[in-house]
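Re: [ENG-882] Designed sequences occasionally contain unexpected residues at chain ends

Forwarding the minimal case from QA. Structure tokens:
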């Protein structure tokens, strides 16, 4: 009995805490949750001769990184569906390249949620992501984890909380996982 209690206590001490917090990202109502106090970082990203300021809000729980990002589109891009589609495809391909994985099927819809195996600093990682490019901004949601950490984490709670512009009701306290 004592050994079993000790094992349970050790397992509880090792499991990450998921203290889900609502996070709005972008300027058109995109929202989701992150499992801890989000850290925000903005960096310039070059695409087709333009520099976009991509802001990523991220938080870790155990070995799982959750992130929500956005960048405003330059004037004129919103009215050009071809440019928006190229940006979405480029953003998806950048995730694959950054994780050292082969590129996705070029016929795949770049705005559908996808996952793939890549390589992180500690070994294999599972990347799950979705990219949206609206008339005004580039948005993305990403989860990166070692496969075992991904399988144990409540990753689906993150995806269920996600609201893109134009969808019913942003994620908030009512949409927070339990």
């Amino acid at each position: 009995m004592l050994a079993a209690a000790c094992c349970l206590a050790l397992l509880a001490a090792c499991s990450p805490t998921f203290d889900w917090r609502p996070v709005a990202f972008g300027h058109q109502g995109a929202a989701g949750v992150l499992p801890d106090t989000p850290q925000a970082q903005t960096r310039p990203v070059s695409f087709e001769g333009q520099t976009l300021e991509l802001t990523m809000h991220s938080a870790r729980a155990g070995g799982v990184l959750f992130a929500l990002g956005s960048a405003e589109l330059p004037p004129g891009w919103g009215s050009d569906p071809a440019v928006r589609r190229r940006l979405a495809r480029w953003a998806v391909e950048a995730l694959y390249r950054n994780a050292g994985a082969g590129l996705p099927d070029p016929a795949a819809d770049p705005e559908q949620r996808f996952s793939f195996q890549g390589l992180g600093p500690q070994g294999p990682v599972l990347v799950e992501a979705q990219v949206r490019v609206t008339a005004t901004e580039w948005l993305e949601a990403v989860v990166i984890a070692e496969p075992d950490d991904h399988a144990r984490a409540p990753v689906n709670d993150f995806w269920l909380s996600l609201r893109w512009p134009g969808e019913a009701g942003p994620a908030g306290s009512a949409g927070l996982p339990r």
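QA comment: On inspection the terminal residues look reasonable. The longest strand covers residues 50-61. Proposing we downgrade this to a documentation issue.
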